[in-house]
Amino acid sequence: MRFKFLDLLKAYAVIMMIQGHTLSAVLEPGAKQTGFYQFLHIIRGLTAPAFLIASGCGLAFSLCRKKNQKTQDILKKRITRILPILIAGYFLHLPRLSLYQLLTQTSKEEIAQFFQCDILQTIGWTILILQIVLIFIKEKRIIISLSISGLLLILFFTPAVNNSISSPNFVSQLLTTKFGSGFPLFPFSAYLIFGLLFGLVFNEFYTWIGIRRLNLLIFISGIMFFAFSFLTRLENFYLFYFRTGLLLMLSSLFLLFEDKTGRILDFFVLIGQESFLIYFIHIIIVYGSVLNVRNNFVQCFGESLNTGVSILLAVSLILFMLALGYVWHYFKDKQPLVIKTLRNSLILLILIKFLLTI
């Protein structure tokens, strides 16, 4: 069973992510000091944890559905889903669309940038590590206990990890924000592990007490997490409880629509299902990539636009990306072979250019 509230959570995160990235890229520095922008910045801080929690929750639901399948079959399917996420994540950081230039002309700074860990890398590597661990551990109570212990240890040791790393490389970029990584495993993998924990508990209680009572428990838990965030002085724990508290309350709100239907609701569920595509394309439009070096928001506008124009640009991009997600999903559903051929052809063309360009 696929739960709507997860797709609605991702749809919310997609919209907040696009407005956050757009305003950050184009809004003039003075306007970023206003209370309005600071409020939007706080909301934007929920987007990465929302994607991570939703990914962990999806992993938990998948485990519950496939508990009778062979471990090796589950691992193969999981790897085939993780690899495109990791490849896309590192592709967005690729300094040159040429293997020859990459091997002969890339600077140390560009290599460090290529290895930076953003949301796709964190999702991919964390799920891969968890899936390997879950090969050897099947008991749900042990998984829950290890998940709680793991996320607390990650949050606790994040400052020590940051202080112990002194140079950028593949591993250090995975672990710390010190050299430009936006969402390294310390501390952000804790959110995905929390999603796994949440999904396992949700699945257990869903069949036991029903969705209405479960929704009430989720909302109360969100309030408790949010309140507890103000009782701790450790920054990583404060941010974790603050963000997860708000996201639990938001998930509770979306759960109210679980048994509802309607065009608008179905549209946003669809957008949540296409969040990966929307993330990938909007990053290229806002920040650029080897596919769009010059005609991106950062290069075209910099931090030079006033609040009104910046908001108009953000809303326009949101509408465009929602339309793109809808059209892509429509044709993927109606003409799956055509969409698959188109996708694979584009990937093949990019790969050929990457291999042959000197």
UniProtKB/TrEMBL annotation:
GO terms for molecular function: acyltransferase activity, transferring groups other than amino-acyl groups. It comes from the Bacteria. The keyword Transmembrane applies. Keywords: Membrane, Transmembrane, Transmembrane helix. It holds the Pfam family Acyl_transf_3. Residues 4-324 form the Acyltransferase domain. The chain crosses the membrane at residues 39-61, 82-99, 119-137, 142-161, 181-202, 214-232, 238-257, 264-287, 307-328. This is DUF1624 domain-containing protein.
